[in-house]
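FORM 7B: Structural annotation worksheet

SECTION A. Query
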Amino acid sequence: MDNKEKLENRERIKNAKWRQRFHIEPPDGWLNDPNGLSFYKGEYHVYFQYSPIAADGHTPRGWGHYHGSDLMHMTYDRAVMMPDIPEDSHGVYSGSAIENDGVLHIFYTGNVKMIGDYDYVKAGRGANVIHVTTTDGSKMSEKQVLLRNSDYPDFCSCHVRDPKVWKEGDIWKMVLGARTLDDEGCVLVYESDDLINWKYTGKVYKEGYGYMWECPDYFEIDGKGFLSTCPQGMPHYETKWQNLNQSGYFPVQGRLEDSVLGDFTEWDMGFDFYAPQTFLDPQGRRILIGWLGMDNKAYGNATTELGWQHCLTIPRVVTVAPNGKPRQQPIAEFDELKSNARRQSSGQTAEYPLPFELDGEPADSFSIFLDGKLELGFDKEKKLFTMKFTDEKYGCGRTVRNAEIDSVRNIRVIADMSSIEVYINDGETVMSTRIYPDNDSVKLKVNGFEAQVWDI
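SECTION B. Predicted structure
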């Protein structure tokens, strides 16, 4: 495909059915993990895993880039990094960004898959920590390899990836997700004085949480520490760990390397959420963005046939509730998009153009139906919230997800052209999924409470 054809294809995709209005999507091809989330030189920067052109993700993987002064109004730039050195020959994989002395430093995993008779777990794969810098967020410096397989602890398999860097006092710290030779997921912790030379300082893990931990992220809110990560190889149950791979956080007490991790809690209980990353913005907000997708053959996305696949979540502000657990809510800038509020009574059916937001304060069991094909319901007696598709095409193979909740005080349902994000009890529980309605409007029926519906 020549450049003219690429531009024509992107223009067609811009106006395609199910194209989102306020979620970040790739201009074409495949998107997955958010990367390098940062605020630099007056703008927010959202990088993402990007396979150009191929919506199935089977072209070389690099970093796409959005930027803007407002996280709800971002502009696509270009693919700022693609595989072009031996140490990232099979992918510019996930990583992070942080500013130091006016320069944005980016760290990512360079993926190498060697040709030969390998299992690609204990041998045959290179996982290199690579460093670049930029002074405008777009043009990158030469790539510098900082860590190779031989630099990791002897107990590591070939699966070490996804560097996240932050600063504690005068020391730079970095976490890497890893799989041990004994098939145990863990996080490796490193320290540096100069962002170039890194020293291993310890391993963080908890027995029984899968064979690999991806996308680690450590942060503190109100003096409380949290380790976010994505365990692979977890068992599945009716009300937890329902997706192929999970994404959640452990409370951390004390120094990360020495901590005994608390109970694991999932960030999002829906069908489509993985690989979140957080950053601190100039307003002091801890902002989380996740991949509103899942690398899962059990269900798919109708946009694939139209030339692109996946999107990112609405940026969410993470705060700590009185019970000590994180909660998530859309950033305040999102509310500026809302207008034309209407009331919908219990038992009423009404049609609304996409996108929209539905809010309410149920006091008992309730249900919300979208086109009669997706039910969001709470059973107070069972203390169970359910997201259930009754139409295979509407959910593109998605079926049901459950969340145990004692009671529902309030609910926000935010629908874009092909996704919904459900925020329950001020974001203490969140559920996200893709949807594929036939039209650009949805028939809503609410039972059990009076709702308010906004245009977006």
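SECTION C. Observations
The chain has two domains: 3-330, 338-455. The first helix runs from residue 3 to 14.

SECTION D. Sign-off
Analyst initials: ____
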